[in-house]
TrEMBL record, chains A, B:
Origin species: Paucibacter sediminis
Protein residues bound to Zn(2+): H264, H268, E294
Protein's job: Broad specificity carboxypetidase that releases amino acids sequentially from the C-terminus, including neutral, aromatic, polar and basic residues.
Full protein name: Metal-dependent carboxypeptidase
PANTHER family according to UniProt: CARBOXYPEPTIDASE 1, METAL-DEPENDENT CARBOXYPEPTIDASE
Residue ranges of coiled coil: none
One matching Pfam family: Peptidase_M32
InterPro entries: Peptidase_M32_Taq
Cofactor dependency: Zn(2+)
GO molecular function: metallocarboxypeptidase activity; zinc ion binding
Keyword ATP-binding part of the UniProt annotation: no
EC category: hydrolase
Amino acid sequence: MSTTTAYDDLCRRHERQHRLAHLQSIASWDQSANMPAKGNEARSLALAEMGGLLHQLATDGALKELLARAEGEALDEVQRANLREMQRAWRASNALPQALVEAKSLANSRCEHAWRSQRPANDWAGYVENLREVVRLHREEAKFLADSSGLGLYDALMDQYEPGMRAAEVDRVFGDLRSWLPGLIRDVQAKQAQETTLQPVGPFSKAAQRALGHDAMQLMGFDFEAGRLDESAHPFCGGVPEDVRMTTRYREDSFMQSLMGTIHETGHGRYEQNLRRDWLGQPIANARSMGLHESQSLSFEMQLGSHPAFASLLRPLLVKHLGDQPAFEEGNLHRLLTRVHPGYIRVDADEVTYPAHVILRYEIERPLIEGLIEVDDIPALWDAKMMELLGLDTRGNYKDGCMQDVHWGGGLFGYFPCYTLGAMYAAQWFAAMRREMPDLDARIARGELSAVFDWLNAKIWSQGSRYETPELVQRASGETLNPAHFKAHLQSRYL
Amino acid sequence: MSTTTAYDDLCRRHERQHRLAHLQSIASWDQSANMPAKGNEARSLALAEMGGLLHQLATDGALKELLARAEGEALDEVQRANLREMQRAWRASNALPQALVEAKSLANSRCEHAWRSQRPANDWAGYVENLREVVRLHREEAKFLADSSGLGLYDALMDQYEPGMRAAEVDRVFGDLRSWLPGLIRDVQAKQAQETTLQPVGPFSKAAQRALGHDAMQLMGFDFEAGRLDESAHPFCGGVPEDVRMTTRYREDSFMQSLMGTIHETGHGRYEQNLRRDWLGQPIANARSMGLHESQSLSFEMQLGSHPAFASLLRPLLVKHLGDQPAFEEGNLHRLLTRVHPGYIRVDADEVTYPAHVILRYEIERPLIEGLIEVDDIPALWDAKMMELLGLDTRGNYKDGCMQDVHWGGGLFGYFPCYTLGAMYAAQWFAAMRREMPDLDARIARGELSAVFDWLNAKIWSQGSRYETPELVQRASGETLNPAHFKAHLQSRYL
Ligand SMILES: [Zn+2]
Ligand SMILES: [Zn+2]
């Protein structure tokens, strides 16, 4: 006698999960930003309890039939899209046997934990023992996901972060990139070798940097009534769409990394803050993908940050909070913001060399998952590719080489391409904006950044997961992923 | 074929509730201390969802039989006590029909919300309309609780906050208090009229007060690896035992209220921080009662705060953070810490006049719940009792009279006695300490406050809810509640 549709039932279930996940997000943020040491065990147990509960709700036995019934119900276009995302979430939660989920989680934690001391000790031999088990389990995961989805092994993993993206497409765009990037890096370096750039002279107090960061977030349109900036050891953008919790960390000898990191996270934060309010609680409201998310942070940090006019927007904030100094002169500031320098560490890389790091990871992690290479092959491949792509010698230097970050140790296989796909999408957005708004650069120079933000809001933020990525990209920019825009952007900015 | 006892099953269920409630506590603290305005709706929905889930777990149909079966199992003394507390929790969660719980919650929220604007407008007529409904529902609640427990109406409500305490006992101890308190207040005022007391001269920056508060918490033994101090509009002590979240608020023109409030909350915080770690997650670990909790905060704020030696412990902290000034001279500081002044507002009251406010509330709320008076009778009773107990005229001044706080509007009937029971217990602890440690006052004067803290830890904090209150009090102090110690304390401190 119930008049409730299966679709309505599903919506209520997702809303419930959304509300409970809210508490998990805030408590996780608190764990990084506030929590004193002795709270850690109880917090971890509480979060694990909630993780188990959310998993239980996501794998509830009733869902399969509800999803099937909802398929046959009369739904409008938005509901249909929401149902598609519900099904995606259901598949993601139900594809793996519980024993594998637990084994993965254990192996990842063990590998990450040991890595913290193995990395400073340059202990590849120790690390590889744990990594081997992580890789074994993630190959198993890839097999399960591939079997249930019909995708290739690597595609099945990548699909978790970038739904719809396939290795064949990554090969196409990264193949193009690979053909011109090393040459471009050399050309830019040759050009910049002629320039003199003054380094800012510190120290820069935390309090001043905190105030500077707030003003920079204000410049980038962050809504402080729906979010905060705090400190944590590893900067991230967390919280919930209604209350975004960004973090940064300050070094008194240098402010640029924290400042540009804050601007980067503000891009992530505004995407979340502007997801459609009336959809929140449903999967359709969620940000489309990791690559799309990164396209927002990179629109802020790179597309705007390396814009020739951006230095003049930033300069008054620096002078206000840090006092004036010769390095803050606009031309010098722009040179600082666009400095290209091949280095070992991905997270410290500039806009031009960053994709080389990502190509390298992709070219290793894909055959690794596909079983074509083994973990013991990683260092030699790493050394060869670092030399080829960036001209750097990493032999024997594991800690600044294949042990520099813990993505693989933590099981994040298939994630790396998102960084560079994000950079490509960001370039594509700005190309589209310039077609629609021929005076865009003049507006940016006048500080009218809302031209950019309004476009991103209309085309990306407010669209959530309504469309599959290719359709979203097509609707936003008039074409699907086109790496030519990224190339044109780098050439025009850096040559 | 299960070898699990019903008792083990119950323990696991309570542990699960404890872990989920952890997230609720931290998210509630965050709502008061951190959350920006636009996060409120989503946070409230998330907390309500969790509240519903915890209620569902606490009223699970299987519990009744599990509790009955556990009764018959072989349990040691600690397990037996834990089972007693599980039963208490079960009765509390299951005594009321869900419809009444929801109606109460709605009426309380409505009354509290309206009170925020009605109080400044002195709008008794408006307030009384909402309060009437709140009282009606809480009389209904009292009836349900009394029917299921066999207690009197008021006792049934009070038992939620102070298990085992009965109105007959409150009558006995408050009756004694009432006979000598007004005379004592007059005598102290006459004595203090001879004294000259300098007021501290501000302003006192927030940053300096924050640092002062931290040092005061350190002096009082707060473990900063298991808790924090932050700011909120209404100071409280929240969080979880493993990670206590205290809050305060700062006024730049005055530091004393925030400082002594912080010392008060530190007493609550240390009780929580020192609940037995190996019991945490089970009801037996919990603080015994609201009165016992208040006996800790008042041991810190009043028993130590009004101690003649305390000014000399506080003075160096004031000088360090606020600079020196004549008001910080030790004798003057002690006079400031022990200033007695009858006033309208309970929360601003000193140690001597505070019980008068509580007696007044008790003498009104009890007959109100018992149906002997109606809400319309409150103002006249209030006026008469304020005149009788404190010599103050409150006629027509509702906002500083019966509308000054929102305990009744929020449905907290039966709670007020805990404040003064706490003050009495605190005096009783110090009397017992002095019997056991004849040099206690000398040790306090030397700043060896650990003598006090170790005693409280051994006798109260680490005992959790192992014993019913009378037994806990007897074991701690060698006798059950004896108001003579409170009288002796006030006389020796203030006359
Ligand atoms: Zn990012
Ligand atoms: Zn208190």
